[in-house]
């Protein structure tokens, strides 16, 4: 189970302001490309699941993930997640020809998608995706991720924190934002849900 605090920032100015404040705690920045897949009859989506290939930093690495049963409430997201590393060149071949996902035997995650959701019977199609610039900070014992997500229909901004104590982490982050006059709202949708909706919240 992945548990995250997810707070939405209103615009690029708030994102830049927060980036400046957190700069002493910066550890790394990732350039991510996220692509999603389903069957032609949407077996995954109809079961509240999403299959994603995430490429990092010009294809230096790739992670395949299967997320299901998402729940987001009051700025805290909970979702069942299974993920693993996959060879980037193999992943790119699957992007070019999604039917290949049904024949990759080396991936536990892809086997789960085929066996538990019956995706192997129909094969896969690519739904498209989005790019994300993720800056990672280590701040007050928390790992913060400041996201600039580039959809075809606009750019969204969020700060996220994966934690086993979401209410306490949310309180600390909210206090920091309020002290520095940075507006925010609780994220009501995952990035995948925003992508599928075709519009920014």
From TrEMBL:
Record-linked Gene3D superfamilies: Hypothetical Protein Pfu-838710-001
Residue ranges of every copy of the CYTH domain listed in the record: 1-199
MF-aspect GO terms: pyrophosphatase activity
Pfam families assigned to the protein according to its UniProt record, in alphabetical order: CYTH
Entry coiled-coil feature ranges: none
InterPro entries: CYTH-like_dom_sf, CYTH_domain
PANTHER family assigned: CYTH DOMAIN-CONTAINING PROTEIN, OS08G0299200 PROTEIN
Protein's UniProt name: CYTH domain-containing protein
The species this protein was found in: Stephania cephalantha
Lineage of producing organism: Eukaryota, Viridiplantae, Streptophyta, Embryophyta, Tracheophyta
């Amino acid at each position: 189970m992945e548990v995250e605090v997810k707070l939405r920032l209103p615009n690029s100015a708030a994102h830049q302001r927060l980036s400046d404040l957190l700069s002493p705690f910066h550890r790394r920045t990732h350039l991510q490309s996220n692509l999603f897949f389903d069957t032609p009859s949407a077996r995954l989506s109809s079961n509240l699941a999403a299959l994603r290939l995430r490429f990092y930093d010009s294809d230096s690495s790739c992670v395949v993930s299967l997320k299901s049963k998402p729940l987001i409430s009051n700025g805290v997201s909970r979702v069942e997640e299974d993920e693993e590393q996959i060879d980037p060149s193999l992943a790119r071949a699957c992007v070019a020809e999604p039917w290949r996902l049904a024949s990759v035997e080396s991936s536990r995650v892809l086997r789960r998608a085929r066996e538990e959701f019956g995706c192997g019977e129909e094969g896969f199609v690519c739904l498209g995706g989005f790019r994300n610039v993720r800056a990672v900070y280590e701040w007050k014992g928390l790992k913060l991720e400041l996201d600039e997500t580039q959809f075809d229909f606009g750019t969204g901004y969020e700060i996220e924190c994966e934690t086993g104590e979401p209410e306490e982490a949310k309180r600390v982050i909210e206090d920091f934002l309020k002290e520095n006059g940075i507006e925010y709202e609780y994220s009501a949708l995952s990035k995948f849900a925003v992508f599928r909706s075709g519009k920014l919240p």
